[in-house]
Amino acid sequence: SYPVLAESWKKNDLDNIANVYKRSVQSHAVVGVFLFVMGWALIGPALSLDARYMEYASGVFVYFFIGLAQLIDMMSGVNAEILATSAKYKLNVYFNLGLAGLLVLFNLFFIEEWGITGAAAASALAMLIVNGVRWFYLKRKYDLQPFSLDVVKVLLIGGVLLCLVSFITIPLGAIPLLLVYFFSITIVYWGIIFRLNLSEDIKEWVLKMKRKFFG
Q1: Residue 129: its pLDDT value, please?
Q2: How far apart are the first and last CA of the chain?
């Protein structure tokens, strides 16, 4: 995205910047939600393969919050890259310093209450705030709004699948359960995504690969 955004700033082509921003958010949301849901579904059965499972059981929530932090960052799209290639590139330094400061501040409170899970939650909250401020700045300064109803649909699909794998128990061993979750989530999730055409970029890439390997 860097060369495309830099060239767009050079031409003062805000429409193209807005298009890149929106498409990056949409594609990253689709991929990020899939990885987050899949990871949450598989981590329990995967840990249960180890005899010391109970020692690691609390670690699933560390994954949850760290995964959530990365999902938030992914769903922010190329907001940092837009700033980095603009005349306001120095703002990224302040945003990164702000992120570091928030992490230290939140860790002081959250670690004391929740231990290592608190550190992970602190990361998620700090990431949400910093990316929220970045979004607000780009919206206010350049009227760039990357979020659409399609992003909401992706989140709803992910939320439903997350609830299903969290609250429905399947009486299977660890390895069969890993296989069931992997294939069922993949088929259902991507089936809905392609059916609703929630990411043109990913769909075009899949069709390109299909033509390349299968004609």
Answers
A1: 97
A2: 30
